[in-house]
Write a structure and sequence with these properties.
This protein is mainly beta. The protein has 1 helix and 11 strands; from the N terminus they run βββαββββββββ. Strands 2, 4, 5, 6, 9, 10 and 11 form a 7-stranded mixed beta sheet that branches. The chain has a 4-stranded antiparallel beta sheet with strand order 1-3-8-7, with no helix packed on it.
């Protein structure tokens, strides 16, 4: 199966912004809730944000609420994560994935079709 492809990561100063993109196949993307996760070295994979299939409902981890915005373009089968006011603790590999369950909760096990990730590094 074709996996999503994340892009847009890079090195940015604290307080700066980046926009990540997740390009997915039509089968992966269409009508599916999608999410962003991140994983720093030595840490568990952490939920960042989730967006419903229509784009109308979004959830954010408390750590990024008010700074990050998740969005999607269903015509392009692409999901985005606009990251503003970046902090060094945002440094991680960022992954996009498709939600596979209808249960509440935002653990990685609720998602599948993971991309390879894109590195975000925030310096002081």
């Amino acid at each position: 199966q074709v996996q999503p492809v994340e892009s847009g990561g890079g090195l940015v100063q604290a307080g700066g912004s980046l926009r990540l993109s997740c390009a997915a196949s039509r089968l992966t993307f269409s009508r599916n809730t999608m999410g962003w996760f991140r994983q720093a070295p030595g840490k568990e994979r952490e939920f960042v944000a989730q967006i419903s299939g229509s784009g109308g409902v979004a959830y954010y981890a408390d750590s990024v609420k008010g700074r990050f915005t998740i969005s999607r373009d269903n015509g392009q089968n692409t999901m985005y994560l606009q990251m503003n006011s970046l902090k060094p603790e945002d440094t991680a590999v960022y992954y996009c994935a498709r939600r596979r369950t209808f249960r509440a909760g935002f653990s990685p096990g609720e998602f599948d079709s993971w991309g390879q990730g894109t590195q975000v590094t925030v310096s002081s």
